[in-house]
Amino acid sequence: MENNMNGQTAIVTGAAGGIGSAVVTKFIESGVNVVAVDLYQQALDVLIEEVGTSGGEIVPLAGDVTDPLLAIRAVELSRSKFGGLDILVNNAGMGSDMVPLWEIDLETWRRDIEVNLTSQFMMLKAVIPGMIEQGYGRIVNTASAAGMEGHALSSPYAAAKGGVIAMTKAVGKELATKGVLVNAIAPALIGSGMLDQPWFDEKTKKQLLERIPMGRVGEPTEVAEMITFLASPSLSFSTGAVFDLSGGRATY
């Protein structure tokens, strides 16, 4: 892909996870400097070792995306280390035990919304003013097929990801004439770290896999390819849109 991203700077949240690490790897290969944000410093250390130094540079930033100050620190770091910011990939997220809505406690609900939706709002709020000022920016928010369809037994997650989709559409319209394009991706089952969580049992995996016409899970590298395009100057006439990554499953 000829995307002319060399020398640009990106913030990627959830950078050490399956999708996040694939995105960081693709960005570095494309010559993009990356502020890699993740909850775990050890995971960031492994990421840096695995990605190497061929292409762009990685600067790690460990912290909880629900902390309002983390977004501000990420932007300040991108400016102090690389002189600016061109790209945001809002990728950090989490799942939780699969139970009916009426059995979910308020603390679990709030945590899911904070991690999967509010954290993206805080990152957007931190990066957008600078992008408006420079007249350029590319933002990619990670939503989910759950946010489009509403997964049973995953009400907090589905609600949060549905919120990401609605927020993306709204802010995409707000920035449509500013040179800052905001889009979302909606993956279905992806072979990333989330599949290894204890609440994601084999029965659930089998049921979800049966709904994918391609008959397989997606790969993090496939998601990274889509995100890289959406984060590049090659994208010029799409904003507030949701791009499907479901292997043909989508019915919306």
How would you summarize the topology of this molecule?
Blueprint: E1 9-13, H1 18-29, E2 33-38, H2 41-51, E3 58-62, H3 68-82, E4 87-90, H4 106-134, E5 137-142, H5 145-149, H6 155-174, E6 180-187, H7 202-210, H8 220-230, E7 242-245
Parallel strand pairs: 1-2, 1-4, 2-3, 4-5, 5-6, 6-7
Helix pairs in contact: 1-8, 3-4, 4-6
Describe this structure in words.
With 252 residues, the protein is of the alpha/beta class. The chain has one domain: NAD(P)-binding Rossmann-like Domain (Rossmann fold, 3-Layer(aba) Sandwich). It contains 8 helices and 7 strands, in the order E-H-E-H-E-H-E-H-E-H-H-E-H-H-E. The protein has helices spanning 18-29, 41-51, 68-82, 106-134, 145-149, 155-174, 202-210, 220-230; strands spanning 9-13, 33-38, 58-62, 87-90, 137-142, 180-187, 242-245. A 7-stranded parallel β-sheet has the order 3-2-1-4-5-6-7, with helices on both faces. Strand 4, helix 4 and strand 5 (137-142) form a beta-alpha-beta unit. It is globular, with a radius of gyration of 17 Å.
